[in-house]
Structure formats: structure tokens, C-alpha cells
Amino acid sequence: MFLATDQALILSGGTATRPIGGVAALPTGRWERWRLAAREVDWVPDLGMQIGSRDWWRGLATCLTLCAATIAMAPGFHRPILGQAPAPLTGEAWSHARAQAIAPLALGADSGRRLASNELVAQLAEAPERPTVELSATIGSGDRLDRVLQRAGVAKDQARAAADMVEQAAGGEAIASGTRIALTLGRRPSRAMARPLETMKLRARFDLAVTLTRTPQGLEMTQAPIAIDRTPLRLQGLAGSSLYRSVRAAGAPAKVVESYIKALAARMSVGRDVKRSDSFDLIIERERAATGETRLGKLLFAGLDHSGRKVQLARLAGEDDGQWYDVNGQSERRGAMGMPVAGRVTSSYGKRVHPIMGFLRMHKGTDIGAPYGTPIHAMMDGVVKFAGRSGGYGNFIKLAHSGGIASGYGHMSRFAVRSGAHVKQGQVIGYVGSTGMSTGPHLHWEVWKNGTVVNPRTLKLASVAVLSGAKLRAFRREVQALLAVRPGR
Asked: Is the pTM higher than 0.70?
């Protein structure tokens, strides 16, 4: 047994004894005294306290000794520790391991335990087909309904018959791109034949949904008209730092905003005159279906409260020629002349060294470089006075416009109009070429003002048109109806 003393636990001879005076007998052996003395020494003192004392130096010596022993017994930084890789599984062990494994099906896994077939299992010559297949297709831009159905797996004759029924129900209108089609294809007699069309649902028009169903007599159509609210959308707000961004933030589509700014540009300089405090007013075509869809159309009314002066413009009902009239039925166009072809100016109006003749002479027009065959547009409404061959100009067209203005277009590859024809602004009159005295495909554009050649890039255009009679009365009724629309409704 052990005796508990203030110094230590001392092994006893088996009987309970108590030292006299309360002090245990000290050990008499030398090693026993050293052992007890070593146990009372603190070999790992806190090195952050009593720095420089005997206990601190003893703890530092202990730390250094342990670090040296660790470094001495380390396996080394440059010698890798060799490990023994297990032998790969083969045979039956590999089969059992794979049966208990779980691998991703997306990577073609075939893990898991397989059961052998018995007499109840019937071998199939080929995998069975589903009795019906449900598909979804979308009509893309420039695509046709029958082609979409054929790509979905419908037979050509059935696709054509279904498309004819839908087009007839739509009144000849083309199915809008982006229209989704829900299809159900039935069971086919053999794999070599296309599946029959069982049902088809789509939006034939914005206000009409149709469903085609196969019956013993053939395809039958069910039409479901959709109620449409055609109240226009009116948007109002402040111009702020950017008129374009403010109107876009109010909810107008980008093309509508472009039309709005173009309409105002005929009456004022939008970039210079519009102020932050000016307020805009737009009315846009809108169709709202009972099913929740909304479709915005073209701009009907363009208004701007500019420093107390109101600009109110509207279109003539049934016309879309770019003409905007104020509330009094007067239309005004002004501004610089635009280029008749998409390209870059290669030679401006004025004196230059002729590229072929090699001497200084007056260049009476503007040369616009463009690829061969690029369309050329009429700069204004007018009449074709000449269309034919004209010396160094090659294939040349001359147009007569109002206000004593005429324009000429040279070096064309071919014509799109004939002499005596009336043309509208922006209409294609020919195509870029390199006929006559020309060093490459380009357009020579020339303009006359009262018979005198002028620089087409500096000519300012202005035209005024006034409505009268029945057109003016119908226009004013249309404007009053538009102004009665409440904002946001």
C-alpha cells in the first residue's frame, strides 16, 4: 500500500503507518534523491516570464534540445517518403467491388449488381417505343410552320395540311417568330414511318389561339379568340440629363424612342435645345391580351413641353411615310442632307487632282466609296429626269426635286428605276458600280440648286406640307382622341 505524505507517496510494507511528527522519512538512496529532485524541477517554464533567470535559461535549453532532436530524426526534405500502393483488383474481387460502387449515370456508369435472367424473362428483338411523344417547338425568324413540324418528326403531307389550316385561321398572316408550339405525336405503324400528329396547340395570331386534334375523319381545328384591349400607352416625364435614357426608363422600346427623337429633330435641335426641365409626352400603340401578354407598336404621338412652348406631333391615320404633323395639320422637314449610300467619303466637293487625267480640276460632287452592288437611295421625293449612259459618269441617274433642287448619281452598276418614274425619299434607285471614268466601285453624288452645282454636304433642306379638307378634319379628330388617353393607362 502507499502512504500519503506532504512530500510524496511512499511504498509501505503492508500496514498503515504514520510518520512521527507528521514528516515522512527521506529516501536514503542516491538515485532516489536525484529522481525526486528532478521531479521538482520545472523543465518547461514560460519563456515569456522571468527572462534571464535560471529557470528561463533552463526552459530555453529544453526547447533547443527538443528542436535539435526533431531535426535530427526528420526523414529529410529532399528524400520522398515511399509508400506501398495496393495491388489492382482483378477477377472476382473486381466484380464484387464494382457491384458495391456508385458511379454517375451521366458518364455511362454500369455499376451495381446485375441479376441473371430466368425462364420468366422474354428476350426482345428491339426496344419498345413510347405510345405518344410530347414535344415543344419554336418558330424562328424567317421560318415556316410546315418546316418546323417536319423537323419535329411530323410527316410532310400532315405538316403541310396542318400549316394550311392554321394559316387560313390566321387570315393569311404569317405566324410570328418566337411562337411556341405544343405537339403530341402518336404511335407509328413501323419505325420506317413518321409519327402521326395527334394534337397541336399554338398562337395563330395575337388575338387567336388554335388547337388541332386528330379524329377518324382527319384533323379538326378548335379556335379560341382572345379578347384584346387596344388602348394606347401614354408616357410622360422629365427629359433630365438625357432625353433618350429618360424615355427608355419610362418604358418605351428603343425603336419608338428613335422615332420620337427623329420626329422632334424636324422642328428643333434635340441635342442643343432640350433642357433638363423639359417634359416629354409619348403615345404608343399597345395591345393587351386577356391572357396577360402585352405588345407595343409604333409611335402615334410625339410631344415635348420645351420651356413653356409645346411641340405636339402626330401621324396621319393609315399612313406611315415618315410625315409628322402638328395639331394644326402642318408638316415641316428640315436639316442637312443625308448620304444616299452606306459608305465613306473618298473625295469631297472642291478642287482636286483628277485621279485619271492627272491635272487640277473642280470636283463638282462627292465620291462615296462602297462595295460593288450596294443599294443607292433617293435623297428626297422626286421624278427621274434621266436614267442612262452619260459619258464619264457611266450609268447615271438625275432626279428633280421640289424647291429647285436636283441630284445626280453616277458610276452605277445597274438601275432600279426608269425615266419618268416618281420616287420616294429612301427608295432604291440603283446600285454602286464602277462604270465610266472610275478607278473603283463608288458613287459620284452631285446636287444642283436652281441649276447651280452646290456642295451636297452643306445643303440645308426644308419642306412644308399642310393638310386641308377632309384629311385635316380626320387628323384633328385623331389627335383629340389621342390626347384624351390618360398617362400610364
From this structure: no
